[in-house]
Write a structure and sequence with these properties.
Layout: E1 2-3, E2 6-8, E3 15-17, E4 23-24, E5 31-33, E6 44-47, E7 50-52, E8 58-61, E9 66-69, E10 72-74, E11 76-77, E12 84-88, E13 94-97, E14 101-103, E15 109-115, E16 119-122, E17 126-128, E18 135-140, E19 144-153, E20 160-165, E21 169-177, E22 185-190, E23 194-202, E24 210-228, E25 233-250, E26 257-262, E27 266-275, E28 279-284, E29 297-298, E30 303-306, E31 311-315, E32 325-331, E33 342-345, E34 353-355, E35 359-360, E36 364-371, H1 375-395
Parallel strand pairs: 1-6, 4-7, 5-8, 6-9, 7-10, 8-12, 9-13, 10-14, 12-15, 13-16, 14-17, 15-18, 16-19, 17-19, 18-20, 19-21, 20-22, 21-23, 22-24, 23-24, 24-25, 25-26, 25-27, 26-28, 27-29, 27-30, 28-31, 29-32, 31-33
Antiparallel strand pairs: 2-3, 11-15, 32-36, 34-36, 35-36
Amino acid sequence: MKTRYPICLAGALLCATASSVFAWSPSTNSTVYGSSLSVSSTEVVTIDNFIFNRTGVNVILDDTRTYSVTKVEVRSPTADGVAAKLSSTNSGATLISDGTIAVGNTLDTSGVIELIAGKMQATTTVGLGTGQNGVGTMTMSGGSFSALSTMAIATGSASTGILRMSGGSLSATLLTLAGGAGNSTGSFTLSGGDATFGNLAFASGNGASSGILSIEGGNLIVTATTTLAKNGTGRLQVLSGSFQTGTLTMGLEGKTSYLTVSSNAVMTVSSGFSAGSSASVTMRLDGATFTPGKAIISLGASNVSLDSGMTLRIDMGDYAATETQTITLMSYDAKPTQTPMVTITGDYDDTLYQVMDAVWGDTSLTVTINYIPEPAAVGAMLGLLALAAVARRRRA
């Protein structure tokens, strides 16, 4: 049974009926707790609009109720310095919006969503930083969050959208990073948990927009297409954890895009990889040990199309091997028609390492790095060989 209730602020003499547009207007730094609602924890609380629009309000869902709402808006004037915030801390708390969930969605406003435990879901879109000059932030350390349509980060003019995820599960049909006009900036940092999207688009706004995705742990899957910079600038960093996509297009039509992949991560493109002349791909050799045949970028059975003018680099700034190794940079089913030149970058000791030219083979791009022992080590080795020779002569 769904019942409408008046909703009251904890510690405040203010009450708004749920049948009206629900706008909490508490004094600065007031806190609203879900447990302050005088209803049974087994019932569904139905609210037409969940709107938090005053500086310092902190709404905490700390019970096991299901909150069924028409829409959610979290915003307060950015100039006031303390953004409105909606948090979920109980694994039994559920917030379901039949419409949108919007954060920082009006002119010059900011808002924060924090998901520690529980479930949040929007039937339509989720927006972080959708208003002009709006700032929307979402942090996830647990629970589950889903958008049955688009999750849009920084779609307002000159807006900022920030998503940080260290745990839990996140899903959406489409994720856009910086889809707005006029210097919009959207960023997503994944350090743990699992994220799944149907499609992923970077910088789909105007030429000044910038979208950044940094994978530092966890797992991210794009079941269909990843477009790295449709109009502005897109940056994808896969430093740890795993990234898997169906197709990946980057650097086409003069749109600047950057891809950096560490040898500590797993990156797989299963259906198609296209890199135009404005694409820059850097493969980082991090650490001392590399599994023979394990590719830094695995292109699987995908169709591979590379522009000869693209930038392709090996970064040896954190290379620390103590033996000669042949490292697989890319693997593919068929050698690309165009094979760009591979250059070396990073601050490394060229007295220890001799980097051979990268080789485009039939099924992989490889590089051999010869290890050159230091003179002291060579001297010690020669001394051991001399002692061994003396010992053999004595036995003889």
